[in-house]
Amino acid sequence: MTWETVIGLETHVELATKTKIFCSCTTAFGGAPNTHCCPVCTGMPGALPVVNEKVLEFAVKAGLALNGTITRDCRFDRKNYFYPDLPKAYQISQLYLPIGRDGTVEVGGRTVGIHELHMEEDAGKLVHDPWLDQTRADYNRCGVPLVEIVTEPDFRSAEEVIAYLEKLRSTLQYLGVSDCKMQEGSLRCDVNLSVRPAGSQELGTRTEMKNLNSFKAIARSI
Predict the structure, then answer these.
(1) Nearest-CA neighbor of 177 among 21, 54, 29, 26?
(2) 213 CB neighbour count, 10 Å cutoff
(3) Which residues contact 52 (CB under 8 A, 6 or more apart)?
(4) Which candidate, 44, 70, 77, 123, has a CA 20 to 30 Å from the CA of 90?
């Protein structure tokens, strides 16, 4: 039996704004741990978020560049999960009414469908220290603005995935929406993969490989 690989991508792109998505803290990479934080991005009681207009502008730019439809009425939702890198215990994202839908990207003679593009905030970062046998939380990245670009399961090989990501990266860099520095986590990928008999229209059991931040790692994991 001949098997076929079916792949879809969720690409997280940090936006090149000077401040975070819901507060005025800096988005600068690095810095001493927990120095780029405030009551809003760490979820202190009574702190209220105010959306950064530049984030909306960059998300619309990216959506139009990917031939998507911009939603006139969109909203943010709370995505609840409990993990040490998320001090609020929920992430503000767009689950039901994303800013962009139904885009396309032409790569190597194949049309890749863009299911949706939505805005959300990034989580913090856990730093594992094997010498001290400790894990420490750095919340500097909490609230850094992201767009998540979700494709349809239109890829059939690692080569097609890398070609798409190279085109996506160059497009977003040209727009000035993101620097796409993968070594700094500005562009990260979740790879959703399944296999099925060639010619079948049914999707197989999906696996998800999360937070891959280099083309080499993405190709190797596929």
Answers:
(1) 54
(2) 16
(3) 17, 19, 20, 21, 22, 145
(4) 70
**Bridge partners for 195 per DSSP:** 5
Which candidate, 197, 202, 193, 206, places its Cα nearest to that of 7?
A: 193
CB 72 within 8 Å of CB 178: no
pTM: 0.93
3-state secondary structure 12-33: EEECCCCECCCCCCECCCCCCC
CA atoms within 13 A on the CB side of 183: 0
Region of 123 please: left (phi>0), alpha (psi -120 to 50) or beta: beta
Q: Which residue has the tokens 């984030």?
A: 55
Q: Which residues contact 19 (CB under 8 A, 6 or more apart)?
A: 25, 26, 27, 52
| Nearest to 145, CA basis, from 32, 43, 7, 12 | 12
Contact call for residues 42 and 139 (beta carbons, < 8 A) = yes
Amino acid at site 53 = E
* CA trace torsion 41, 43, 49, 55 (10° rounding): 30
